[in-house]
Amino acid sequence: MQEKIKSTLKSNDTEEWLDTVWTRPIGYQWARLFNHFDIHPNTVTIMSMIIGAASAFFFVHGSWRTEGTEGLIYNIIAVLLLAWANFYDSADGQLARMSGKKTQLGRILDGAAGDVWFICIYLALLFRFYLHHGLEFQWMGIEDNQRNTIIVIAILFIAECFSGLYCHAHQCSLSDYYRQIHLFFLKGKEGSELDNSLQQQHLYNTTPWKGNIIQKLFLKTYISYTRNQERQTPKFQQLIKTLKEKYGGVENIPQAFKDEFRALSLPMMKWANILTFNTRAIALYVACLIDFPWLYIVFEIVVMTALYFYMRHTHEEFCKKLNSKIQLP
Fold this sequence. Notes:
By secondary structure, the protein is an all-alpha fold. Helix content is 80%, strand content 0%. The protein is built from 14 helices and no strands. The protein is globular, with a radius of gyration of 22 Å.
């Protein structure tokens, strides 16, 4: 069974420990069930989006401190729903590798799933604070009236926009990019989903609108996504450019260089995994269950952003050093 599960994973290098002992085994069983009924991986991804978004309804409720036993139960349901959505998010990729039903749209949908979950959850946390903020106002020493509530909610909304649209988005997109880069040097083009904006722009331009409206719209978003990844990694982009000039294409990169890159990239995978779902979700679960959901926003802005800059700086530095070692003719 373990070997069958491993066959549906991207690589041991890029897997997080919690995923290998919890998420992937459960996701594999779901993937087997979906494969039995010939359900497409993209359908599983959409189900994941719906379930994850539904968890927001239950995160709106205060937990034990503000809503008693009923509130605690609502929050536990929210945790279970988001965990369920994550099992499906794992299952869609495992199913795609198991069945061979890999599509470009599936890659784009998979990347969007987490965004759908957390946009709904951010809005839920905002409304939750509107309903339950008495203790926080007491700590701040301000009167709990409508005017002060609106002012604080506006500040929290700005903080959530910064946390979600900048911090969360950059952390997850760069983490995904570094994993795909690692897989590329480990397994080559066939074993990774390393895309670039020029390829995606060409695909967008050559895809007709007729019969492809949804794919075209997703591709437009994905072009921006890949451009953002490239803007965040100028030293890596220069390294790839140098390698292409030196060897006439990335497919001709010597194995010795690939091994050296993998050795330097491997320590980055633990930070990439921390910045994606599990650590983020655990922080969210704890903050909501102890009834201080705003702590999650603080965690994301302060702790996760610090890790993001450390990972990015380290990766860019070793790309710079590797680039300087390559002798061009």
